[in-house]
């Protein structure tokens, strides 16, 4: 079965600093990969997705992610964070047609002024 | 265009009761998936409906069921509620399921007392 690991439960970053959130997945083939963001009490908003092709994908709100097959990783990056980026971030994988989206446990992002 | 709409937003039920949650997908989307989110287990896939048929099912007991109507609206039902069913239930719609972007509603917060 596929799985997703987000090794960082909490990350604190100063406003204006760069950000990288880690995501590793376990899957037999190349999966579909996603990053979602969730604000308190809200649903999930899709930041970006990787289906195939260029391994560096651009998303909304200035986020990007890079798919590295050799490392089974799909890390999310942003060059300069804003206070409004404080939220919970989820990496997800999909593939094989059986299990829907499989999510990581999430990374809680805290922005310091 | 309108997003995914879930009703109600909040619900309080007593143990042993049953509950029905509703999800209206984005117009034109034929796939509706349901997820349960809890602090302990994170986001877990319940089931997916496509063109009124359950296409995939997660690892949940038979107390959790769903259906989809001809207009793609979906309902999920939980019978004989347990305290552990307290969670945020999220609905996601996509054009055709796997390999297409899933858009989430804001969720229904179910509290079982």
Can you walk through the features of this model?
The complex is a heterodimer of chains A (113) and B (113). Chain A has strands spanning 3-5, 10-14, 19-21, 24-26, 32-38, 44-50, 56-58, 64-68, 73-78, 87-94, 102-103, 107-112. Chain A is an all-beta fold. In chain A, strands 2, 5, 6, 10, 11 and 12 form a 6-stranded mixed sheet that branches. A 4-stranded antiparallel sheet of chain A has the order 3-9-8-7, with no helix packed on it. Chain A has a two-stranded antiparallel ribbon with strand order 1-4. The radius of gyration of chain A is 13 Å and the shape is globular. The termini of chain A are far apart. Chain B has strands spanning 5-7, 10-13, 19-24, 31-38, 42-50, 53-57, 64-68, 74-78, 87-94, 103-104, 108-112. Chain B has no helices and 11 strands. Chain B is 0% helix and 53% strand. Chain A binds chain B through residues 32, 34, 36, 41-46, 49, 51, 90, 92, 94-95, 97-106, and chain B through 4, 6, 33, 35, 42-43, 45, 47-48, 56, 58, 90, 92, 98-99, 101-107, 109.
A few lines on this structure:
The complex is a heterodimer of chains A (113) and B (113). Chain A is mainly beta and 113 residues long.
List the helices and strands and how they pair.
The complex is a heterodimer of chains A (about 110) and B (about 110).
Chain A: E1 3-5, E2 10-14, E3 19-21, E4 24-26, E5 32-38, E6 44-50, E7 56-58, E8 64-68, E9 73-78, E10 87-94, E11 102-103, E12 107-112
Chain B: E1 5-7, E2 10-13, E3 19-24, E4 31-38, E5 42-50, E6 53-57, E7 64-68, E8 74-78, E9 87-94, E10 103-104, E11 108-112
Parallel strand pairs in B: 2-11
Antiparallel strand pairs in B: 1-3, 3-8, 4-5, 4-9, 5-6, 7-8, 9-10, 9-11
Number of helices of chain A: 0
How widely separated are the two ends of chain B?
A: 37 Å
Overall pLDDT score of chain A: 93
The SSE order of chain A reads EEEEEEEEEEEE
Supply the helix-strand structural class of chain B.
mainly beta
- How helical, in percent, are the residues of chain A? under 10%
Topology, number of strands of chain A: 12
How many whole angstroms does the radius of gyration of chain B measure?
13 Å
Low-confidence stretches of chain A: none
Spans of chain B with pLDDT under 50 lasting ≥5 residues?
none
Largest sheet of chain A: 6 strands, mixed
- Beta-strand percentage of chain B? over 45%
